[in-house]
Amino acid sequence: MADGTQILRRNQPGSRAKDFCRWPDEPFEEMDSTLAVQQFIQQTIRRDPANLEAILKMPEAQDEGVWKYEHLRQFCMELNGLAVRLQSECKPETCTQMTATEQWIFLCAAHKTPKECPAIDYTRHTLDGAACLLNSNKYFPSRVSIKESSVAKLGSVCRRVYRIFSHAYFHHRAIFDAFEKETHLCKRFTYFVTKYSIISKEILILPKLDDETPITQTVGESEA
Amino acid sequence: MGTNGNGRRSGTKLPDVRRPMDEGDCVNDMDSPELDFVYDDCDSQANEIAELYSYTEHPEFQLNVKAFEDIMEEFNFPPSWQRLTLPQQRTVVMKLLEHLDVAVSDVRMRSARCILYLAQGCWAEMQSDAEQAHWARLNIMTLYEMGTFAAFIELLNLEIVRSSSAMASRKIAESLPDSTNLRVILSVLYLITEHMRTEKENPDSEYACLVKNFKEELGTPFGEELLPVKLLSMVTHLCAGTTPYFPMKKVLLLLWKVLLVYLGGSKELKERKARLREMYGLAPINEDTLEIIKGMRASSPPPSAADMLENQNPGQRKLKENERALRRQTFMKQTSLDESDEQIYVDKEESGNGSEDYPMEFQSMPADNMQNQNTNQNCPYYMYFKQFDSPPPPPPLPRSLPWQSKVRQKDIDMFLDNVRIKFVGYSLPGDRQTVAGLPQPIHEGVEILKKHMYTSLSEVQAEREIEIARSPLTKGEKIVEETEAEILYRAMLPNLPQYMIALLKILLAAAPTSTAKTYSINIMADLLPEEMPVTVLQSLKLGIDVNRHKEIIVKAVTAILLLLLKHFKINHVYQFEFMSQHLVYANCMPLVLKFFNQDILSYVGAKNTIPIFDFPACVIGEQPELTKECLEIGDSSVPYSWRNVFSCINLLRILNKLTKWKNARIMMLVVFKSAPILKRTLKVRHALMQFYVLKLLKMQTKYLGRQWRKTNMKTISAIYSKVRHRLNDDWAFGNDVDARPWDFQEEECALRASVDRFNHRRYGSGGGQEVDLTPVDTDINSVLESNVELDEEFKDNYELWLEQEVYNNEINWDVLLST
């Protein structure tokens, strides 16, 4: 797609899968659209989804609220991939409730009065709810600056989204592993919420993934 | 006018003036000392928090510690909050929040209780109130920062629905256990809100940023509803009887505090008013009612039987007559006073029998030269104004009326009209300048009126409304400023009448004059324990608790109503009118009067509180056994109940707001025989409270008849000296020759029409009457898409129509399209 003098960073109708998003990187300083932060994050992820540190290294002079917001947005978008894979295996008949370890059943907060939804519904509702909130005109009218009070809302979204990971891990391990191998999404999410102390380590019930990358300051080195 | 008549008669019928009033109990004046109550938006934080809990709830405090200890054990932390590091504390809070999402109700509620314990300042570990308050503040800020408030709103939504399904099996009477979960949730919400409110007052708080977030959060809907609207709908549900177990006291207290933080208190109101007046180009107001009244003394109550006896003493009487002669002189003089002679000074308690005199009597004051003399006399009683500790208002002339006199444009117009008719024989409608042909004194009169003219925001807003109605396209409303009050009004509008009815029903049920029979609703559900007390002491305690509970509910409801009225009034006068109309329809006025038709002195002095059972005293330190003595422990140094005086003043202010400039409603005051009730209220020796009573009496004086005035000269003097004068307003002596109730009804209807038009225009669904003003749809696609209903007759004969209207009609399409 990079032919010609003008680089058009867009997937045209009819692009082949292998051509998707295959355009050269652009330095962050030169991105001039209002969606620069998203573009930058996606670009770093494409380069190497396993390089957590690079992905979560905030450019200088970047508003931290926006940075967190855009990352959470990206997580939710990518999580849809996991949800799609889960659909084949996680049925309302088998996983009738949202559980991680058997200890707690979680309520689905996407309803006016929270309900006990089956796991797959919980996943869908939570992702929908998160998308609704993150795209809401009231809370996030701008993607350039974000109200402090809205940033505070991200915490509860993160906690709820994390349960999707833990359900997949404890109940659909194969799907989880395959997805994680490709995207490193859970690792990245864990690194994200720890780095910005959005969720404390005690709540992150997934064991540190495999033998690689302990979730500490040294994250990313072994992978990169 | 009337002054002359009065002056003449007072010479011969002096004893009449002194005749004691026959209504009211004869309470010795000495029994009601002047109250040092200071009116404010609310009480101190400690008291406001103590009032959240009923005494019957005490056993539950222990459950909170228990929940905390269990959870800490589970988390492998020591059960001591102080010993945890800040990150550890945050971890605990995060885990607790995680538990709030769990499906098992017990787990959820245990964690909610634990959070409540943290918000209560971990009192079990604390040695003193101060320490507990310190930790409460820290914890609440941490809790809020981590999103507890929003999480608890979700929990509230859940619990409202769950408990109503659990309540399907109805019991005979609701009691404390029915609302346990709701009470825990509401308490946490209230504690956060109350701390935020206090923090907001503190200008250099390190949490200013959180406070700002909190305010923003209140303004954005949780789910679909704004929090205040959600709480109001809880109130209406209770009144509808569908959810009798709702803990109404906590709901109302929370609602009040939420409004106070969201809309702002008197400080914000003042600022906003000043800003709006500037915007509309009106002169700034430099009088602050509360500040001015702080400097006033309370009047002694109207004379009682003791007074009468004293009056029969001839020697005393002689003295009095001299005094009176002097006073009469003032009255005569008043009519010829010119504007600089508004100065009247206080002549107080000169002979030690001041207790039966109004402290404010007038004497004639030869202007200027006396002024110096008086200052030399060095008599502090010559001033209305005590010393101000807070920033003093613009230094008032020590010997002047407390208020600037005011006059409305309308009154000036009327005055001009009258004098023109009288002196030149014709009127000049709309002309406010021409004074040609009028005598010199009238010129001066007009000058003075103009100098005192005051235009209120309401008048400007109402005028603007007329303008918009006249030319909606050219002068129509552009943008409505999205103020907090505006957002709230829009959200409340669809159900506003129901909210008002519900609030008033609760007020009625909580009023001290209500008997068990008049309870249409049960407001005690969150107070009465499951098992009734067995010992005398316990029932004594419960009795106090019940009264305290009612008083707190009254306090919250009156504060909510007043706050809403004030904010709507500034935001747009028709929003205020809409709300007050519905209050009037819901019988607010007789209700308030009924409230005051009780032994008001004992209400104001009521001690329905047991200090050692108040939170946090009831949980910190050693707890005594329940004995007769402990009901009496505590400071009784304050001779009044803060909340009761506060509620009384709120109610009087509400009544004033409803009736100001509304003749039809003033007539209601007369019809409901408010005068004796109000006069009895004057016994409470508090300047602000008396001020609002006097205002209410002033507006109806002219309908009360001469007999009333004759027997109530003292009250009239008090009105004269304390309430603002309206130039040209003959409130005291004008007999109500012009009172024509049907006119008043007309005024009321006109107002209602204006309010409806306003609501329709600004919040209506569009369409309706404004069909002429909506732009014509010229897009061919959308025009062809719209469905046109044709009637049968047309369908049968359409060929004829086609023939006549289309084929036989020459249409020059070129011309049509080019225009």
Automatic annotation (TrEMBL), chain A:
<dbReference type="GO" id="GO:0016301">
    <property type="term" value="F:kinase activity"/>
</dbReference>
<dbReference type="InterPro" id="IPR036703">
    <property type="entry name" value="MOB_kinase_act_sf"/>
</dbReference>
<keyword id="KW-0418">Kinase</keyword>
<feature type="binding site">
    <location>
        <position position="172"/>
    </location>
    <ligand>
        <name>Zn(2+)</name>
    </ligand>
</feature>
<protein>
    <submittedName>
        <fullName>Mps one binder kinase activator-like 4</fullName>
    </submittedName>
</protein>
<feature type="binding site">
    <location>
        <position position="95"/>
    </location>
    <ligand>
        <name>Zn(2+)</name>
    </ligand>
</feature>
<feature type="binding site">
    <location>
        <position position="167"/>
    </location>
    <ligand>
        <name>Zn(2+)</name>
    </ligand>
</feature>
<keyword id="KW-0479">Metal-binding</keyword>
<keyword id="KW-0808">Transferase</keyword>
<feature type="binding site">
    <location>
        <position position="90"/>
    </location>
    <ligand>
        <name>Zn(2+)</name>
    </ligand>
</feature>
<keyword id="KW-0862">Zinc</keyword>
<dbReference type="Pfam" id="PF03637">
    <property type="entry name" value="Mob1_phocein"/>
</dbReference>
<dbReference type="InterPro" id="IPR005301">
    <property type="entry name" value="MOB_kinase_act_fam"/>
</dbReference>
From TrEMBL, chain B:
<dbReference type="Pfam" id="PF07923">
    <property type="entry name" value="N1221"/>
</dbReference>
<dbReference type="InterPro" id="IPR021819">
    <property type="entry name" value="Far11/STRP_C"/>
</dbReference>
<feature type="domain" description="Far11/STRP C-terminal">
    <location>
        <begin position="439"/>
        <end position="798"/>
    </location>
</feature>
<feature type="region of interest" description="Disordered">
    <location>
        <begin position="296"/>
        <end position="318"/>
    </location>
</feature>
<feature type="domain" description="Far11/STRP N-terminal">
    <location>
        <begin position="32"/>
        <end position="333"/>
    </location>
</feature>
<comment type="similarity">
    <text>Belongs to the STRIP family.</text>
</comment>
<feature type="region of interest" description="Disordered">
    <location>
        <begin position="1"/>
        <end position="26"/>
    </location>
</feature>
<dbReference type="InterPro" id="IPR040185">
    <property type="entry name" value="Far11/STRP"/>
</dbReference>
<protein>
    <submittedName>
        <fullName>Protein FAM40A</fullName>
    </submittedName>
</protein>
<dbReference type="GO" id="GO:0007010">
    <property type="term" value="P:cytoskeleton organization"/>
</dbReference>
<dbReference type="GO" id="GO:0005829">
    <property type="term" value="C:cytosol"/>
</dbReference>
<dbReference type="InterPro" id="IPR012486">
    <property type="entry name" value="Far11/STRP_N"/>
</dbReference>
<dbReference type="Pfam" id="PF11882">
    <property type="entry name" value="DUF3402"/>
</dbReference>
